[in-house]
Amino acid sequence: MSATAPVRAVLPPDIKARKGGTPLVVLTAYTTPVARLVDAHCDIALVGDSLGMVLHGMPSTVGVTMEMMILHGKSVVRGLQKAMAVIDMPFGSYEESPQQAFRNASRLMAETGAPAVKLEGGQTMAETIAFLTARGVPVMAHVGLTPQSVNTLGGYKVVGREGEAEKVMADAKACEAAGAFSIVLEKVPMGLSGQITKALTIPTIGIGAGADCDGQVLVVDDMLGMFTDFRPKFVKRYANLGQLADAAIADYAAEVRARSFPADEHSFADILPTKAKP
Ligand code: KIV
User: Fold this and answer.
1) The dihedral of CA 154, 160, 161, 165: what is its sign?
2) How far apart (Å, rounded) are the C-alpha atoms in residues 185 and 201?
3) What domains are defined for the chain?
4) Minimum CA distance residue for ligand 1 atom 3
5) Is 96 among the catalytic positions?
6) Is 91 exposed, middle or buried (0-12, 13-18, 19+ CB in 10 A)?
7) Ligand 1: does its nearest atom lie under 6 Å from the Cβ of 49?
8) Catalytic residue among 111, 120, 176, 186
9) What pLDDT score does 1 carry?
10) Residue 66: in which H helix or E strand, if any?
């Protein structure tokens, strides 16, 4: 059965109207419990295809499938009451033709209940963005570093320095002209992302793109410090959950080995306590 998309408090036109206002707060979410936490504080919960690397240990986002996005998308939408879900279109699900993109975007929306999709690419995706938006699929665009193209870009580099700046600006303008309701700028130098933000009438959402964007997005596991060995420059750690979890698991393992867990308070008595006589 397909998920019935509830009409949520926040929808793409509301996000578009936030241009130049209070910054948009966006975090990724891949599961219901995290979506509930994100919902309490954020405007958008992004079901990013980063879930392939963060949750499934993949080396890049290239191997993420529609089935993975649908499974996690449903899980996130169940946890949201206020924030809007945006779901990433995985690599290979939209690049072939606008028709292929519509088939898969409409499936993502219908089966998860998310009211919008995100796809990577600028000028080359403009026709597809226009095709989707004209047919009821709100699109968040994504330019600068586009991780699904890591193999052609040659790594997770800053995109938009010197000779590349004009192309990134043209990519962003093409997405806006095609009807995108907002745009992610990833690893774009801050001066350029400020210029793009000024030039566009749709909100820019930065990740590693400086403070002048209309909003910010981070991968939730990165900002919570779930990984001890991964810390890109643009991630500020607001907690060290990885260290806390490591210490907790070490305590548990030591207590099981020492037979100090479970204690009586975590166990069940063989005989029910007799009722006190009146
Ligand atoms: O996949 C993802 O999580 C993303 C954000 C980092 C923007 O695209």
Assistant:
1) positive
2) 14
3) 12-223 (3.20.20.60)
4) 48
5) no
6) buried
7) yes
8) 186
9) 38
10) helix 66-78
